[in-house]
Structure formats: structure tokens, C-alpha cells
Amino acid sequence: MDDETQHERAVETELDAALGRLPARAAPPALRQRLEALVSAPAAPAMPAASRKVESRRGSLWAASFVSACAAAALVLVVTRLTAPGPSGGAPAELVAEAVNDHLRVISSTHPVEIESGGIHQVKPWFTGRLEFAPRVAFSGDDEFPLVGGSVGYFRDRKAAVFVFKRRLHTISLLVFPPDGLPWPDRDVTRVGRLSVSETSTRGFSVLMWRDGGLGYALVSDVNVHDLEALAGKVNDK
Predict the structure, then answer these.
(1) DSSP 136
(2) pLDDT tens sequence across 120-138
(3) Contact between residue 232 and residue 208 where contact means Cβ atoms under 8 Å apart
(4) Which of 30, 116, 155, 193 lies at 20 to 30 Å from 62 by C-alpha?
(5) Which of 206, 207, 178, 111 is CA-nearest to residue 151?
(6) What domains appear along the chain, each with residue ranges and CATH number?
């Protein structure tokens, strides 16, 4: 295999990888019509062997340039997609998206809790043997934020304790998980009691995240952020 062929294959591989990371979208009708016209167009008449060799060489060079240009364009789209503005606030977008998705799973589940609340002293011991850590939550709920119960969930690649609270008709999820190795927020934080808490909003949800005692916490709901701050203060009132 000559150097030119190796280069073409390398460029094609790069293009395939870049395109694979792009979101799939339907082609516009006008583009589909143009492509269909190209496919159905009659074949060009045969040319002499010598001419075919020259044209093949030109076609090879053109194809390499075209593939390189497409790869560059695709990579620009990938970079643009990855660096597009995400949720407002200091927490990394991937952590916020995970917290919101976990909350959506709770509110869409027919059985959002595995252990119903009889108080935190009934819910918290239930996690023993089901997690590799002991969740540090002492708040049993009150009239403003009743504790519904708890369940075992996942936060990205690790198990998490999920505590479910209510605020009137709104559901609030409190996720407790080991934070090691996660891109934890270190800016745009606010003080809630004794803790520094990152506040983020996205898709109509508020997300509060903080670390305490070697564990990570994420509080998620569609209630206003001041209600979440009030609950975070009660959760951490030790």
C-alpha cells in the first residue's frame, strides 16, 4: 500500500470517527433530491485507457482533498457541539445532566422509592449492605419538606443513595454518592449554612451540588432555588 493510499484511509477513518460523534438528523428534502438525481444520472461514456489513468489520478487527489475537507468540517461541528453553552452555573454540564436525568427517572417511575419513610432512622439503615458507603443524611423531613422514602440508584458509573422529598406537589431528589474522580465544580458557588454549594439551572430544573464528609450531594427539583437552599440547609444541619 503506497503512502497516498495510507493517507486516504487515515483521513477516512478520522472522518468516520468525527461523523459518528455527531447527532443524527434527517437530510433536507432539497439535498435528498439532489443526491437522488446524482445517483440516477446516466453513466459517462468510456474513455481511453491513458485518459482513464490520468482521470483516476485526478479523482484520487480530489477525493483525498474532499475527504480531508469533510473531516475538518465534521471536527469543527464536533468541537462546536462540545463547547456550546450548557447549563447556567458552575457545575460541569455532564454532572448537571446526570443529576437531572436521575431526577426524571424518579418522577417517572411507578415506584419511586424502595423503602417508604417512617423517618430517616428507618430509611437510612435500609441502605446498609446495598451500598459501599453510608449516606450521611440526618434530616427526617418536616411539614415543609416531608421525606417520602429512599432507593438505590446510580450517579454516572457508581451507586448512589436516592432520598425523595416533597415540597407541596413537587418532588425533590437528593442523590448521595462517592465524588472521587468526578469533574467537581469549583466556581460560581454560594454559601448555604456551613457549606459551599454550586447552583445550576437547566431544562426548568434547579440543581444544587456540594461535597461533605467525603461524599457528593446533588439536590434536584423544579421548585425555586430558594426552596432547595432551605432543604439543603436542613439536610446539612448536623
Answers:
(1) -
(2) 999 999 999 999 999 999 9
(3) yes
(4) 30
(5) 111
(6) 3-82 (no CATH), 88-235 (3.30.200.100)
